[in-house]
Amino acid sequence: MKLKSLLFLFCYGLPSLLFAQWKMVGKADYTWGPFHVYTIALYTETGEYQAGIRPLMLTIKFNKPVEGKSFAITLMKEMNSLNIEGFDKHKVLEDLQAIFPDLQPNDQLSYIAMENEGYFVLNDTVLNHNFDAAFSDAVIAIWLAENSNFSRLQKALLGDNNKNKTEKLPTDNPNIAPKKQENIDPKLDSETIIPLS
Fold first, then answer.
1. 42 with 58: CB under 8 angstroms?
2. Which residues of 151-165 are buried (b: 16+ CB within 10 A; e: fewer)?
3. Which one of 79, 91, 119, 130 has the minimum C-beta count within 10 Å?
4. What residues pair up with 113 in beta bridges, in sequence order?
5. What are the coiled-coil residue ranges (predicted)?
């Protein structure tokens, strides 16, 4: 069944989405203490965001290493804090922990939400699992819901630069490509769980 889903995605869905003219709505840096952990960007086909718009892409470019299993747990904790329902959270957590490798500096993890499903892309590799629309809504809500724990990132993600008019957001497409060089940044202890908020 997974093979059929992947074949369908590669034959029909993926080429159009990878070559879609993604336009950036906005981006924001997430820091934890003195550490720049990641930069997140929001993309749509129009460069504008409205609730429920699809397709939509959230892209996280990591600046620090993050253990994949811990990142999956953190996503689920954020969904729980928003009281999101509509899918089997235990099963989804298992799926996320199975597909997420440990994330390294310069890794780019994108979530592409389509009308009825969504999936993760790590650098240039589609991760082997499709998620339903309820999960897509939950991932988007982590950063964009009104009661999000990321209210300080939300304005920049939605393209509201009134606070800092001198900094223009780029409107280029995200770079989904393999890493080209070894990273020499120091790594955090692998036991450390870096919170998203």
1. yes
2. eebbebbbeeeeeee
3. 91
4. 56, 118
5. none
Residue for token pair 């870096």 = 194
Distance of CA 156 to the CA centre of its chain: 15
Interval 106-165: pLDDT, tens: 999 999 999 999 999 999 999 999 999 999 999 999 999 999 999 989 999 998 854 333
> How far is CA 191 from each of CA 32, 69, 107, 187, 188, rounded to the nearest angstrom?
16, 11, 19, 11, 8
Q: Backbone phi, then psi, for 155, in 5-degree steps?
A: -60, -45
**Mean pLDDT lowest for which of 18-22, 91-95, 112-116, 130-134?**
18-22
Instruction: Note the pLDDT of residue 160.
Output: 80
Contact 110, 153 (CB under 8 A): no
Quote the CA–CA distance of 50 and 80 in Å, as a whole number. 24
Strand partners, 171: none
Which residues are within 8 A (CB) of 23 and not within 5 positions of it... i.e. 6 or more apart? 43, 44, 45, 46, 47, 171, 173
Q: What is the pTM of this model?
A: 0.74
Q: Dihedral of CA 123/128/133/138: which sign? A: negative
